[in-house]
Each structure stands twice: as structure tokens, then as C-alpha cells.
Input
Amino acid sequence: MRFLTLMWKEFRESLPWLLLATIVLLAMGGFTLRLEIQNPRPDWYYSGITPGETVDTYRLIQSTVLSVPGAWLLVISIGLGLASGIRQFWMPYFTKTWAFELHRSVSRATILSAKLCTTLLAFCLPVGMVWTIFYYYSCRPGLLIMPPPLRIFIEGWIFIALGFVTYLGTALVGLSEARWYTTKIFGLGLAAIVFLMIFHWKLSWVFTSMTIGAVMLLSQIIYTFHNREF
Amino acid sequence: MKFKNSLKYTAVSSKVIMTIMVFLFVLFILQIITIEVSREIYRISRSENIKKEAVETQKQLSEAEKQLKRIRISSKVYLPDGTLLQVYDTSEHLRRYGRRVNREKDKLQIYDVNSNLLWEGLRKDNPYEYLSWPSRTNVHLDYRRINSYRMITPELSRSLEIPVRSQERTLEVWRYHWEKEYFVGYNTAEGKIGYIGSEGFTESKSNVKPFGTVKFFTAWCSEDSYSPMLLWQTKRKIYQIDFERQKINLIFESPQSDIKIFKWHKWKLDTEELSQKPGLIYRPAIQCQTEDGKHYLIMQEPEQQVAVNIPEDWQSDFVRLTATKKDVFLNYNGRSPVFSREYLTSPKLIQQWIEKIKGKPTNHWVELYKVDDAGNLELRNRFDWTTPPPKGRNTIMHPLRKLQWYVNSTSTVLYDIVWEVFGQSLRQKSRSSESFIAGCSEIIVQGRPFNSVLNWVLSVLMMGFALWHGWPRRTNLYKLIFWIIFVGIFNLAGLLTYLALNHTVVIKCTVCDKRRGLERIDCVRCGKQLPLPQRSQLDLIFNV
Output
């Protein structure tokens, strides 16, 4: 019960950012998706292919209708990760409310897990749900010649998971006791390295590198949160 | 308790790994910035001098030297009867120094093997028609490019889609499934129509056979079609895929080794078109080179495949094959001593190569062979020349190379160890894609310290500094030893990591007057505890 109350408190605090992210994704992603569907590419795009000519192979490489909404999803996931991390782990410093937040009749583990679970749900439900709606909409029979492959749907969820890794990086920066000009910022540095690591064609590699990155950040967050003095 | 301990170990080791990763990355970026900025400054300061030197050197050359230079620069070409000619482009030396020259206005000089001038004039008026050879057009996709499109990017991954079109509109689209390695076809009206795999078209997903990993492909449209056909190379096979007719042809299958490269010549003409072009002297052909150094020529009109028996001492990359309606020809460009790719596997071998060629002339030759149906060679023509050893090169290290040597001496010795173990494959990996792994390979290739003595000296100095810094602050001897070894291995990045994670305040011990840390109660030098403060009134409150 206390855990749920804490989650509700975290949710209330993150709500403005969550609403903003969902509305922007729904509006911008939906708008660009609609534009892509209304202007089907093949007919005009292939018009440069003429008989007896060597074909420019780059013309045969196509992005899906979800590519622009996907880019919005990436930006919004990272933005939401940063905003949630700052809201939950930086703001108590600025408002000097860490003591108030920690001195409750619950353990630190409960407080931390309430924060993490709220953010995880925030990523999975509103943002993930919008992405799932986009994908199912673009797969509707008769809408496109070819529905986007399932891999595109998975890649969208990778972007959402990347937002969560960014959140963990931001949280570690907030909790770190090091100075700004030393290693305090390195949590976000690791998140940036994980971001670079997802640029790969093998999904197994992407999942492995994201999991390792998340475990590295999470273990430091839990250890620091339990051992430091606020 | 167990969880707490394991959490502590995971968190602490994660922190160390995270910090060293970030420092290694930042250090590499700084090294690259230093080298690239210096390269640009050097290039700007030297470019004018290089042009002046080139013009002056040209003026100072004797007639024999000028002739040798012309021979060196000239293209060596063959007429269909096997006669060798030298084609000298008079604008070539200007182009080499970065001047833009209009190719239409190029003046050519054509010489025979005895350097007698046969013809001189504009390129477009050239009366000779020499043998042409297989090549690759610029519009193809190789493994590196294909991977970069398959890769997750901020705009998600992309797919390969082949349209089947009439003049006005798209009728079908075939999408390649990157993971399952076959094409899935969709009709604009009816939806999914079937699959194309290595064994041809099928309507059922369960019957489709994958092609295998795609390594290279090119596309063209035949004279009467708006739908692209593909030449599709996998590890050991080359297919021709016609999506309009839903037809697959296995053009070539390498029996023993993977395909290294293939080039084509007049291949995009199909049989009908060939019959309409009677003046054409060539047969459509594909030259295919495998990783074991063998060459195959696959020809049409009639269909024929020849495995060419080339001598073992030849450099396989310098072999070209072409087929006219009468004969099959092989052209080999040789040189001695020859730089082998094996030298790139280790710095010692590169040094051996430099020693080997220092002060020695280089022999060059071109040969034309006729190839019979069994793949045996018959020499038809040969031309050779010798170039003197380069002046001053190989003895003085290039200033930029020297700078890189100094800058990289702060890199970790691990790069050199990885380079020694993986060598050439690492270089290939760095060029094979644009992914994170390729980036890491690039960091190792570009940032390695070249086994330099300076790198070792710096490592030892930094270990000494870490020992000096860590001795008064030590809480545990094993921990200190670990950090000193860590600094030794990772060099500057290791030292920065050590300082970032271990720097604490030191004070003078009141007993022994030496520096001591505050992480433990007793002094690390004299063993005495920190002195208690003088009793005062506040002690009544805090009861110290």
C-alpha cells in the first residue's frame, strides 16, 4: 500500500512531462505517419528506373512509413528519460527535500523501487502504447502495399528502452557525490556509449549491450542510494 | 548479506569499467582531434611547396628520366590481336597535383613498346580500340553498405525493395527479409504473392530456401523492362534474379572457398539483345576471384566457365580476364619486390618490409596471356620497366607519422596486444561496416601505441606516480597493487580513472610528520591513531 502511494506520488510529479511526451509523440508522429501514408512512395520514387539502364542501387533501399515517427519516438524517449531523471533525482537537491523524502516509515529500497517502477510504467504504457498504435495502424489491411516488418516494431521498443537507460544515467548523475568536473557526468557518458552501441544490425547484440549498460547503471544507483548520506 | 556484498562488488566494478570506458573514448577523441588539426595545418603549409617542387623536379629531369616517368604513368593497353600500346595522358601530371582538367580536351600520346610515338591527339579522336576488362560500376552495394542500411539508425532500419513496374505504375514490390534471407513479394492489388529464395519462386513460406548472407549486389533493367534484375552474391554463390519473370539463375558456385570479389563485362545484355548487336566483339562475362586466390571466368554466348590456372607466386589481385568472341585473355600487372597484405598483420613485419625495399629499385611488368578452355595460359606479350628507389623516403619518418607516434604513446598497451592477436582481421572489421564494433576496431587500429618505448616509459612513470599518490592513502595493499597494475595497463586513461576514483585529502601525521590519508584510523606509516581533540565544554553534550 505504501509502495503504491509512493508510486502515485512519483507519477503525479512526473505527470506533466509524461503528458507532454505522449501528446507530442501522438501529434507529431501521427501527423508524419499520416503524411507518409497519403503519399505512397513507390510510384514516384521508382520513376527514375528506365529500360536498358544500370539501376542506382540506393534507390532500392527504402525506409518504412514509420521511420519519421520512429525518429520522434527516439527524441521523445530520450527527452522523457532526462526529464524523469532530473525530476526524481535532481529536483530534491534543488528544493532541499531529500530528507523529507527519505524520512518515511519505509525502507530506501521501497522508495527507490517506487521511482524506478513508475518510470518503467511511464515508458511502457503511454509511450509504448502510442508506438504500438502507430504500428498496428500502419499494418491495417489495404492501407499500404506492404506492412512494415515486425523488426521495425521491435526497433521502436529498443528506442523506448534507450530512453529508460538515459533515465538511469541521469539518475546516477543526480546521486553521484563526485564533482561536476570529475566523474559525476559519467553516468550520462555510459548512456551515450550505450546509445552508440545500438547502431548495429544484430538485434541480439543490441539487447545484450543495452542490458549490460542498464545493469551497470542500476547496480551503481542502488548501491549509491543505499549508502550515501543525503 | 550476500546480496549486499554482490551488489557492492557489481557496483564498484561497474563504476571502474564505466569510468575507464569513458576516459578511453574521450582520450581517443582528443588524440584524433590533435592529429587531424595538425594534418590540416601541415597540408596547408606544404601544398604550395609540393606543387613548386614538382614543377622544378620536372624541369631538372634528364631525357631518360622523363621517358621512364612517362612509361610509369602511361596506361598499358592491348589491341585484340595482343599488341601492347602505352597511352600517355598529357594532363595526368596536372591531375595528380589536384588541378581540374576537362577530359574532353585531354591530349593523348600513344606509343609502342619501343617508345615510338604512333599517334597524338584528343581523346575523342583516338583511332585505336583496345581490349576492355571487367569492372564494377559505382552503383552497387557491398557488405559494408548493406550492413549500414540494415543497421538501427535514428530513423530505424531500412529495407531492400525491388519494384516490378509497367511504364506507368508499380505492379509488385519484393522486399528482402534481412534475417530470413529471402524475398517476399507483394502485389499492389492482392497483397502477398509469394517468396523468392535460392531455389526459386514459391507461394508457400515453408518451401522457400534462404539465399545465405548477402555480400554484394548490383541491379539493372533489360532493354524492354522497367523492372530491375539483380546480380546477387552470397558467400559462395552468385545468382541472377529476375523478379518480373520470377526466375532465379545460379550463375556461379565456388567449390572450395568464399568469393572475394567479382566484376562483370557486358553482362547486363541478355541473349536477345546480344543477337541484335552483331558488331560486338565481346562475350558477356563475369570474372570471379575467390579467397584462395583462384580466378574463374563465367561467360555467355555460349555458356561456359573456365577456372584459370595462375602461377602460385602471382599477386592474385592484379589479374584481369576478358572474353572476346575468338579468345579469352588474361592481363597480369606484376612488380617486384611486392608488398604482401601479410606484412600488415604486425608492426615488425612492416618494419621488415621497409628494410627490405630500402634503396632498392622496383621491377614492373605487364603481361598478356591467352587462356585455353582448360584454363592454361599462353604468353602473348610482355613489357617491363624498372623504377629507381624513392629518394629520401623510408629513412625519415614523416612528421605527421611522428606526431601520431608521440600522441598515441599515451594509449593503452591493450590496443597493441589486440592488434598483435587479431591484426589484419581487425583492420578489415573496421572497414566492413559503420557499427559500434567497427568503431572500436578503428579506435584500436588508429590509436594503438605501435609498441613504442615511449609508451612503456610513460606507463612506468604513471605507475610510479600512482604508487607515490596511493602509498599514504592506502587502505589495503592488494587494492593498491591492483590500481598500479591497472594504471600500467591503461596508461593515461588508467591514471585518470585511478585519480577520479581514489583521490582523497591527506594530512600530516602529528606523530611521524609524514603524509597520511583519512580513510583509516591508524597512520599507514607509523601505525599511530589520529589524535583525539582536546576535551572541552562541548564534550558534555556529545560525550566524546
Notes: The mean pLDDT of chain A is 90. Residues 2-40+61-227 of chain A form one domain.
